[in-house]
C-alpha cells in the first residue's frame, strides 16, 4: 500500500528499524549520514537502497528540513556506493519513489540503485 508522503515521519517504519539494528540487512556501506544495503526483493542483478540516517519521509521533506551537511553526506554516499560497487563503467539507474503516484511503500527516504543489466525504458513502457 503506497504511503501518504505528506504525513509526519513514522519511527516504526522498516528502514528506521534497520537503522536501529532491530532487523537485519545486508549492509554495503555506512557513514555518519547514510546507510546502504541490498534490497530484499531485487528487481535487477544489482539493487541497492541508500537511506539517510535522519528521520525524513521523502526527497522534498529532506531537502526542506535536512542540514547542508546531511544532504551533502547523503548525495556523496550514493555516488560512493555506485563507484565502490563498480557500476560506473556500465552505467546504472537511480530512482526515488515519493508518495502515492510513485508507489512509495516505505516512509523513510530511500534511493534505489539499479545496475548489472540493461535497465529498459525509464518508466517501463
Ligand atoms: P519503495 O516502493 O518504497 O520505493 O521501495 C521499497 C523497497 O524496500 C522495495 O524495493 C522493497 O523490496 C524494499 N524492502 C522492503 N522491506 C525491506 C526489508 O525489510 N529489507 C530490505 N533490505 N529491503 C526491504
Automatic annotation (TrEMBL):
GO terms for molecular function: bis(5'-nucleosyl)-tetraphosphatase (asymmetrical) activity. The keyword Hydrolase applies. Gene3D superfamilies: HIT-like. Pfam families: HIT (PF01230). A motif (Histidine triad motif) lies at residues 108-112. The active site is at 110 (tele-amp-histidine intermediate). Residues 14-124 form the HIT domain. Keywords: Hydrolase. The keyword Hydrolase applies. Its EC number is 3.6.1.17. CDD domains: PKCI_related (cd01276). It comes from the Bacteria. This is Bis(5'-nucleosyl)-tetraphosphatase (Asymmetrical).
Amino acid at each position: 500500500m503506497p504511503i501518504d508522503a505528506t504525513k509526519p515521519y513514522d519511527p516504526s517504519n522498516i528502514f528506521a528499524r534497520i537503522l536501529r539494528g532491530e532487523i537485519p540487512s545486508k549492509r554495503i556501506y555506512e557513514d555518519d549520514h547514510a546507510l546502504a544495503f541490498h534490497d530484499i526483493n531485487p528487481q535487477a542483478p544489482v539493487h541497492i537502497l541508500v537511506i539517510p540516517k535522519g528521520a525524513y519521509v521523502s526527497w522534498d521533506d529532506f531537502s526542506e528540513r535536512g542540514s547542508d551537511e546531511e544532504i551533502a553526506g547523503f548525495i556523496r554516499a550514493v555516488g560512493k556506493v555506485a563507484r565502490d560497487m563498480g557500476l560506473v563503467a556500465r552505467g546504472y539507474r537511480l530512482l526515488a519513489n515519493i508518495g502515492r503516484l510513485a508507489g512509495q511503500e516505505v516512509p523513510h527516504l530511500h534511493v534505489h540503485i539499479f545496475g548489472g543489466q540493461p535497465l529498459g525504458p525509464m518508466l517501463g513502457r
